[in-house]
Each structure stands twice: as C-alpha cells, then as structure tokens.
Amino acid sequence: MNKFNPLYLLLFSIMLFLYSMVDLKSSNESLLQIKEQNKQFVKISTKYNSLQKVWGKEQGTKKKFENILKLSNIRNANIVTNGKTIKIKIKNASLKSLDKFMNEILNETIVILNFSLTKNNLDLEVGL
C-alpha cells in the first residue's frame, strides 16, 4: 500500500469536481436572491429618499409654520431654528387663534418633541 491507486485518485478528483459544481450552483442561487433583495431595497430607499427631500427641508418646514401663523392671525410668535429642531414661542395670543394654530399643526406630518401650553402662551419644539 505504498502507492496510490490511480483509479481512486481519479474517482476522488471527479467527486471533488462534482461537489464544487453543486456548491457553486447553490452559491450562485443565493447570490441571485440577494441581488433581487438589493434591488427591492434600492427601490424602497429611493422612494424614501425622495420623500425625505420633499418633507425634510428645513426652510420648507419653517415657511410652513410661518404660513400657519399667518392663517391663525398670530403676531407675537418667535421661530428659532437650530440644527435638527424648530422652536416656536407664541406669547399673548387669544385662545381662538391658538386653537386654530394647533388644529393646523396637528393636521401636518411633523414630529412634535416638546409641547407646553399655559393661559395664552405656547412653546412648541418640532423635529425636522
């Protein structure tokens, strides 16, 4: 048994070749599945990215608040923008105008981080 039988060596080579072909085919199938998933993720991400561009603009959000303040007839308002938040402070406003303002704000698609209402003052912090 000092020598390797060439038939065994040939058989082993063929088996190794077949195993590698089967393994290669299964890896290709899994890669195709991953490729399809990536295509779906790219579609979804471009959709959300376009939505973020439309909704996530700081100037657009600030202008939206200014328009709502005009519609509500509120003149004692201060809008401060810093990075990721917009702070709105309204002082000495009537209950009717505050009610109209809050009704308009709650109908928008925004994230309210902080909210404080006392008599005729309103402090509102909104995330961008």
User: What would you call the structural class?
Assistant: alpha+beta
pLDDT under 50 segments (min length 5)? Answer: none
Tell how many strands the DSSP assignment holds: 4
What percent of residues are in strands? 15-25%
Q: What is the strand arrangement across the widest sheet?
A: 1-2-4-3
Using only C-alpha atoms, the radius of gyration works out to: 32 Å
Head-to-tail CA distance between termini: 78 Å
Mean pLDDT: 83
**SSE pattern, N- to C-terminal:** HHEEHEE
Can you offer a commentary on this structure?
- Helix content is 59%, strand content 21%.
- The longest helix has 50 residues, at 6-55.
- The chain is of the alpha+beta class and 128 residues long.
- It contains 3 helices and 4 strands, in the order ααββαββ.
Quick structural summary:
This protein is an alpha+beta fold and 128 residues long. It has helices spanning 6-55, 58-71, 95-106; strands at 77-82, 85-90, 111-118, 121-127.
SSE layout and pairing:
Blueprint: H1 6-55, H2 58-71, E1 77-82, E2 85-90, H3 95-106, E3 111-118, E4 121-127
Antiparallel strand pairs: 1-2, 2-4, 3-4
Question: Which structural traits does this protein have?
Answer:
128 residues, alpha+beta, 59% helix, 21% strand, rod-shaped
